[in-house]
Amino acid sequence: MLDPTLLSDNALAVTRSDCASELYAAEVRWTLQPSHGSHPQIWLGSANGGEPKLWVAPSQREGAKQTGVWLTTSSVIYLVDGAKDLVIARVKLADVPCGG
């Protein structure tokens, strides 16, 4: 069970690239603190259910990556410590304002 009170507020950021269409891309930025571990993974899921899927496992503790044009407002992006399978941060795309 994911406890939202334990999630980091500043380890994961998402910028939507387009709000005029149903599907859109986004830039995903992450920054791991020493307490977050050293094996970041970015997982994509849906607020509508289903199992999240691994999107990328970067080797850097800090970075950014652009998604394809396949996100929707029901998409959820997770930053996970891959060594411990612990969710560090979560962004619900429905909460990301247009252009921000």
- The shape, in one word, is globular
- What is the chain-wise order of helices and strands? EEEEEEE
Structural class: mainly beta
Helix content: under 10%
**Total count of domains:** 1
CATH class category label: Mainly Beta
By DSSP (H or I, 4+ residues per run), the number of helices equals: 0
Computed Rg: 13 Å
Oligomer: single chain
Taking the sheet with the most strands, its summary is: 4 strands, antiparallel
Q: In total, how many beta strands?
A: 7
Summed over residues and divided by their number, the pLDDT gives a mean of: 87
Q: Strand fraction band? A: 35-45%
* Strands in their spatial order, largest beta sheet: 4-3-6-7
**In angstroms, what separates the terminal alpha carbons?**
29 Å
- Could you name the ranges where pLDDT drops below 50 across 5 or more consecutive residues? none
CATH topology: Immunoglobulin-like
CATH architecture: Sandwich
Describe this structure in words.
This protein is mainly beta and 100 residues long. Helices cover 0% and strands 41% of the residues. It has no helices and seven strands. The strands form two sheets. Strands 4-3-6-7 form a four-stranded antiparallel β-sheet, with no helix packed on it. Strands 1-2-5 form a three-stranded antiparallel β-sheet, with no helix packed on it. Strand 3 and strand 4 form a beta hairpin. The radius of gyration is 13 Å and the shape is globular. It starts with 11 loop residues before the first strand and ends in an 8-residue tail after the last strand. The mean pLDDT is 87.
